[in-house]
Amino acid sequence: MRSVPLEIACDESGSEGEKLIGGRTGVFAHAGVRLSLEEAAACLVELRRRIRSPAVEYKANHLLRTKHRRVLEWFLGPRGPVHGRAQVYLVDKKRLLANELRTLVGPEIRPDDELLAAFNDVLRTRNRRDPAAGSFFAMAGDTAELRAKVGRTRDAKSLDPLVPAILRAIEYWSAGGEPVFLVHDEQPSLKGDRLARIESSPGLAGVKFVDSRTDPRVQVADFLVGVARRIAEDALNGNGDEILTGLLVPYVDPESLWD
Fold it and tell me: Which Pfam families does the record associate with it (predicted)?
């Protein structure tokens, strides 16, 4: 008898497609939570009771306000509603880009922001005569071998961390042998080959995209992923909060590109 799929609600924060440097965020985050509809609804009621904001829709930034610090600590803490029932996958975007560059050029390269920005531009464009290409190769070394490597990389893969994050969520939650059904916040970019890659993932029983406002589980995932990204980004920028970073650690997927 086939087991009943494990329903996991997911959302992301910091997604800017293949733009990994020079954007609004330095960290990408993806979260999955394992809560029933009733449990998620009760969590939202409790958050609203504790925050006491007149806002119609609550978002992560409500929890991140200084005056709601105790609510945030409760939400992430061992007595909170998602402790032990959630996974967060974090990606330091600049580090992801630097790793890709070192794969192509060599581990000895020490890329600065200018080189990384040029590299990001050349991988994002499909126009091989784009001025960005000339800028990058002028800095990295204009060789036929490097141009061929960059071309193959550009043609074969996307730097957008969203699909790898979803695939990792499926792998994480299905590790116990249960098939996973994902309920994910709407993502217009997930179609065609990108969606097919997700749907063919081992361990996936199905995936449904919903408006987060219609599913309390996805709303809870939205809260978690939003605060996780901000805490991680603050830590990355050297102004992290030791207590909040410590509370986040139990949620962070070991495959994350963040430390």
Answer: DUF3800
pLDDT at 196 exceeding the cut of 60: yes
Whether 1 has a pLDDT exceeding 50, the answer reads no
Cα gap 134→158, rounded to integer Å: 21
Residue ending a domain, among 103, 130, 156, is 156
Provide the domain count of the chain. Answer: 2
Owner of token pair 């987060």: 212
**Residues contacting 16, CB < 8 A, separation 6+:** 23, 24, 25, 28
The answer to whether residue 3 scores a pLDDT higher than 80 is no
Q: What is the CATH number of the domain that holds 230?
A: 3.30.420.10
Q: Is residue 100 part of a domain?
A: yes
The residues, ordered by sequence, that sit 6+ positions from 205 with a Cβ below 8 Å of its Cβ are: 5, 179, 180, 181
- Residue ranges making up the domain that contains 118: 94-156
Inside any domain, residue 256: no
In a domain, 257, yes or no: no
Residue with tokens 């330095």: 26
Last residue in a domain, options 122, 156, 190: 156
Amino acid code (one letter) for 28 = F
Residue 50 within a domain: yes
